[in-house]
């Protein structure tokens, strides 16, 4: 599964094909209606049970042309103590809804990711009820409902690139946490090491989860095909090495091999008990995770660059 070098003409053909795919997408009004009703129910929970001061939606639901059946509902909250947020988290992420809900504490966010969330945010005020979903996007009419074909392509390209970059920012933080844990394990008492080892293992699994989230976005938004079946995780990873009509390969063969090993590790971690973890199997992954993440980031930067629409392609 080598990563093929594409000519400028081939890249141009990919962009034109992807532009056509995005232009022909139809907003699923029923799905958006259902998603916003879910978001309002979650907001009511946060206001009524936890006294949140502000709840808002960000991410794919703020851009309806990018919201699909496979999309998550991203909800941020402000005004909760750490203890209240931790209690609310368990209720929100396991909320009885047809969508996966991602939940973050806006007050804890920093840097570029905080600014992106703030820029995207659509607030849900306390005591309000769901309205026609179209009215929620009036402040973004030109961006959300573009009238020109090129605007549709540009909006979707920027949306996908931003989602990828946001996820990479979160993964980078987790990778940094692994590096810190590797330092701690050398100086902490022997009795504390099993807890650090389990923390490292969980963070390694989280790194793969984040990378897989990016691949699912590409599969849904670009390929329009997300694998199913018992082997879908491995099939999705392999899919990212393929050159398709709408895009070049997303990752290189070298990156694929590293991620394949990390996927096997995550599978083992998810299917054994913490006390059965063997540090000798954790350590090699932990010590190589920086290099692997750098390789993933480089490949994804190349991929998002390939989506760039340039004048010479017209």
Describe the structure concisely.
The chain is α+β, with helices and mostly antiparallel strands and 314 residues long. Helix content is 60%, strand content 6%.
Shape: globular
> In angstroms, what is the radius of gyration?
21 Å
Report the strand count.
4
Helix content: 55-70%
Structural class: alpha+beta
Low-confidence stretches: none
Read across the widest sheet, the strand sequence of neighbours is: 3-2-1-4
Residue share in β-strands: 5-15%
Largest sheet: 4 strands, mixed
Report mean pLDDT, rounded to a whole number.
87
| Ends distance | 31 Å
Q: Helix count?
A: 10
Tell me which oligomeric state these chains represent.
single chain
Pattern of helices and strands = HHEEHEHEHHHHHH
How are the SSEs placed, and which strands pair?
Blueprint: H1 8-23, H2 29-50, E1 54-58, E2 73-78, H3 82-93, E3 101-105, H4 111-120, E4 122-124, H5 141-144, H6 149-187, H7 193-223, H8 232-239, H9 253-270, H10 279-306
Parallel strand pairs: 2-3
Antiparallel strand pairs: 1-2, 1-4
Helix pairs in contact: 1-6, 2-3, 6-7, 6-10, 7-8, 7-9, 7-10, 8-9, 9-10
Account of the protein in words:
- This protein is of the alpha+beta class and 314 residues long.
- Helices cover 60% and strands 6% of the residues.
- It contains ten helices and four strands; from the N terminus they run H-H-E-E-H-E-H-E-H-H-H-H-H-H.
- It has helices spanning 8-23, 29-50, 82-93, 111-120, 141-144, 149-187, 193-223, 232-239, 253-270, 279-306, and strands at 54-58, 73-78, 101-105, 122-124.
- It has a four-stranded mixed beta sheet with strand order 3-2-1-4, sandwiched between helices.
- The longest helix has 39 residues, at 149-187.
- It starts with 7 loop residues before the first helix and ends in an 8-residue tail after the last helix.
